[in-house]
Amino acid sequence: MAQLMSLTKAFCDARAQEAASAAQQAMLSNVRERELRSEAAWRAMSDRISKMEASRALREAERAQTETTEHTEQPT
To answer: Which long-range contacts (CB under 8 A, 24 or more apart) does 51-57 make?
Structure first.
């Protein structure tokens, strides 16, 4: 069975950099364009991962704040 690999921002950034480098070195315009499209796609994935991580961190902070507030309130 194939094992799924989770994408990380660092992985996407590295692939984007590789594509940018390949585009810069490409002799043929169609190869350069393909690599530039690849770079754009990897950068878009990296941006989405950043947004997801920020959103997750915000949710976790809000959850921690809610739990702290609930535990510090005294029953009457």
So the answer is: 53/9
Half-sphere exposure of 11 (CA within 13 A, CB side): 6
Task: Locate the domains of the chain by residue range.
Answer: 11-69
> What pTM value is reported for the model?
0.76
Cβ density class 17-27: b for 16+ within 10 Å, e for less: eebbebbeeee
**Percent with pLDDT over 70 in the chain:** 88
Scanning the chain, the segments in alpha helix (DSSP H) are: 9-25, 29-72
- The sign of the dihedral angle between the CA atoms of 62, 63, 69, 72 is negative
